[in-house]
């Protein structure tokens, strides 16, 4: 029998492939089922997440080592081959251990027949290191630089093109390689102390650079931190924290009593916003279209002050009168290409055509947010994608259609964050390789 850590990693890949599961959601349950903790859990996590991140590179390598198209390889066997390739090329696992344990996985999960095939393929993979393989299987970098980067950094070609375009729009020339490399590094676990309910000192770890509520966990299970276990703190990327902080800092004219989170699921930003609203003497309404996600928001807000309520409502067909809110957050559904560090499977699921449907939704949500805000109030539009169609494309299209709204200076809301100029004057763009955060985009808009 294979060891439990490798079985767990294999089961994660199977769930992602068969059930369209999300790695970060399915992994804790798989680790618990296999009774893994400590170093074994860390090994299984790196094996599963690392294999999923670099799947494109490993498939290019494996394609040269098999005698048939990869589409004709049994999917269960291909999962084991990818796990073996990750151990051989990116982990400090001896070749014999990587190969033999992968063969054992195939015998246990698929059957004895393909075991010899698995052994032969992985022995071919072990003949070269990762750099040598990339030079063999990637396009000539001089003739096709984005094609080379696509294979070397395991990003689909269209994603490389889109990220390169987004970088160029912020004058971040020559940084594409660094950004793609950052997407393949496991992110730190960042905690947030919810204002009025916990302090950053309770979290331990290292304080985040810009958020006054965050701390980088030094190690271990975040669920073992008492404040997290009690729901007074949570796990939240610093970039996500800065979105809520930016909205809380925006100046508004007149009353400041009612806030709206238009797309609140699963509730991280809403929980931080509720704390900020409570400190300001305001109340937050959290809206989420999907009822099961609205339930997650309600769970995140349980025990918080500053909560007006949680509603399962479609933000494009609002359940409130126009000009109701002093502050509105639109954390719009997006491709998530700014959070590929945390969602290793996302780069292989998304397709260029997904943008068409998402952009229509994003424009509708931003228009609805502007309708919900009163004149003199503030609307913050945010995405965890830097893709221009989802950021300035949405802002420009919405503002072109209405004369009662304008863009304000979001950069002034986070002056402490360096090198964060966005693709449109006054917008903000965070980057994994620069800021160590997800690639959050922020724009501030107002009603005239």
Calculate the mean pLDDT score and round it.
Answer: 96
CATH fold-level name of the largest domain: Rossmann fold
So, CATH architecture of the largest domain? Answer: 3-Layer(aba) Sandwich
Shape: globular
Top-tier CATH class of the largest domain: Alpha Beta
* Gyration radius, rounded: 23 Å
Number of domains: 4
- Going by helix content, strand content and strand pairing, the class is alpha/beta
What would you give as the CATH superfamily of the largest domain? Answer: Vaccinia Virus protein VP39
By DSSP (H or I, 4+ residues per run), the number of helices equals 20
Strand content: 5-15%
Contiguous low-pLDDT stretches (5 residues minimum) are none
What fraction, in percent, of the residue positions are helical?
40-55%
Beta-strand segment tally: 12
Family: Belongs to the class I-like SAM-binding methyltransferase superfamily. RsmB/NOP family.
Pfam families: Methyltr_RsmB-F, NusB
Protein name: RsmB/NOP family class I SAM-dependent RNA methyltransferase
Binding site for S-adenosyl-L-methionine: 263-269, 288, 314, 331
Could you walk me through the main structural features you see in this protein, from its secondary elements to its overall organization?
This protein has 448 residues and is α/β, with parallel strands linked by helices. 47% of the residues lie in helices and 13% in strands. The strands form 2 sheets. Strands 5, 6, 7, 8, 9, 10, 11 and 12 form an 8-stranded mixed sheet that branches. A 4-stranded antiparallel sheet has the order 2-3-1-4. Helix 16 (291-301) links the parallel strand 6 (283-288) and strand 7. Helix 6 runs antiparallel to helix 7 and helix 14 (238-249) runs parallel beside helix 15 (268-279). It starts with a helix and ends with a strand. 49% of the residues are buried. The model has no long low-confidence stretch (mean pLDDT 96).
């Amino acid at each position: 029998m294979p060891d439990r850590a490798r079985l767990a990693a294999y089961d994660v890949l199977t769930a992602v492939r068969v059930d369209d599961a999300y790695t970060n959601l399915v992994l804790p349950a798989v680790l618990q089922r296999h009774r893994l903790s400590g170093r074994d859990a860390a090994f299984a996590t790196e094996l599963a997440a690392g294999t999923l991140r670099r799947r494109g590179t490993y498939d290019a390598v494996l394609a040269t080592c098999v005698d048939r198209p990869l589409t004709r390889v049994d999917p269960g066997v291909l999962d084991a081959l990818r796990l073996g390739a990750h151990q051989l090329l990116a982990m400090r696992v001896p070749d014999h251990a990587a190969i033999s344990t992968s063969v054992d996985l195939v015998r246990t999960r698929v059957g004895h027949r393909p075991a010899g095939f698995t052994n032969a393929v992985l022995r071919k993979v072990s003949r070269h290191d990762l750099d040598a393989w990339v030079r063999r299987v990637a396009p000539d970098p001089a003739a096709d630089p984005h094609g080379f980067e696509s294979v070397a950094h395991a990003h689909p070609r269209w994603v490389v093109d889109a990220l390169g375009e987004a970088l160029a729009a912020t004058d971040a020339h020559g940084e594409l390689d660094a950004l793609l490399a950052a997407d393949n590094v496991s992110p730190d676990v960042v905690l947030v102390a919810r204002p009025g309910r916990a302090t950053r000192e309770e979290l331990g770890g290292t304080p985040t650079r810009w958020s006054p509520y965050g701390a980088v966990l030094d190690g271990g299970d975040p669920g073992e931190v008492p404040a997290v276990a009690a729901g007074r703190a949570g796990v939240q990327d610093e970039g996500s924290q800065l979105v809520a902080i930016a909205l809380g800092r925006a100046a508004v004219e007149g009353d400041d009593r009612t806030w709206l989170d238009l797309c609140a699921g699963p509730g991280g930003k809403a929980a931080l916003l509720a704390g900020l609203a409570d400190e300001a003497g305001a109340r937050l309404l959290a809206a989420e279209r999907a009822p099961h996600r609205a339930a997650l928001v309600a769970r995140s807000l349980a025990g918080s002050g500053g909560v007006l309520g949680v509603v399962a409502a479609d933000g494009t067909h609002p359940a409130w009168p126009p000009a109701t809110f002093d502050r509105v957050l639109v954390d719009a559904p997006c491709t998530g290409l700014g959070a590929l560090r945390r969602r290793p499977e996302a780069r292989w699921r998304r397709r260029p055509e997904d943008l068409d449907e998402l952009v229509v939704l994003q424009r509708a949500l931003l228009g609805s947010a502007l309708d919900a805000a009163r004149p003199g109030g503030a609307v913050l539009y945010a995405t965890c994608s830097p893709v221009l169609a989802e950021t300035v494309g949405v802002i420009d299209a919405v503002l072109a259609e209405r004369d009662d709204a304008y863009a304000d200076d979001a950069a002034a809301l986070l002056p402490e964050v360096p090198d964060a100029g966005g693709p449109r004057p006054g917008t903000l763009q965070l980057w994994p390789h620069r800021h160590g955060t997800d690639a959050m985009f922020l724009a501030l808009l107002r009603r005239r």
